Amino acid sequence: MEEELSEVLVSLKAGDLGALRVEGTELEVTETLWDNHPWAARSSYTELYNNGLIWARKRKEDTIGLCFVTPTAFRMVNTRLNMPLPWPRLVFQSLANKWNAFAPMQLWINWADFDRQVTVARFDLKTKLLDFGGFRQVGFVGECWFLIDPEARVSLRHALYTLAQFAFYAGVGRKTTMGMGMVRPLGSRDA
Q1: What's the alpha-carbon Rg for the chain, to the nearest Å?
Q2: Mean per-residue pLDDT for 87-96?
Q3: How far is residue 138's CA from residue 164's CA, in Å, rounded to a whole number?
Q4: What are the CA-CA distances from residue 10 to residues 5, 27, 104, 138 (Å)?
Q5: Tens-digit pLDDT profile for residues 167-184
Q6: Between the ranges 80-84, 170-174, 185-189, where is the mean pLDDT highest?
Q7: Minimal CA–CA distance to 3: which of 51, 33, 45?
Q8: CATH label, 44-186, candidates 3.30.70.1900, 1.20.1560.10, 3.40.47.10, 3.30.565.10
Q9: Domain regions of the chain by residue span
């Protein structure tokens, strides 16, 4: 997502990196994958932003699909509870918060309009338990399609299409740095 850093990383080979130390654990890099792998891709914030705007202006479909590949959950505010369901606002607010924290351009969403104009269209989900050793976490995996009101403004569609593509890079929900919330945007399909 950062062009200068990406150029440096792409030029590295596994042998160039040596051992990496992450939170007291030493990792040996055995292979680098930059292309030709389903979980390796490159894009910039500007590309995602511009593509989202193009899709918002041209697309006639009213659904956005996301495939939640690893268990995904959301921390409920002011509690120790988690929500293992893809409630639309939780999904897109998680992405919008990450986007607005790091992207050079902001995506503004009127959340009151969002709540009236975006809902779950259909889903094929199941819960899955992850055991992290010291604790367990329940999340959901599978596909979820979000329905957008045909009357929604282009600005809302723009934000949603941009964030759906951004999900591949950012992850959704909590504990994404531990492998939770890995997401792939899905191609168009009728709800």
Answers
A1: 18
A2: 96
A3: 23
A4: 9, 19, 22, 35
A5: 999 999 988 888 889 999
A6: 170-174
A7: 45
A8: 3.30.70.1900
A9: 1-42, 44-186
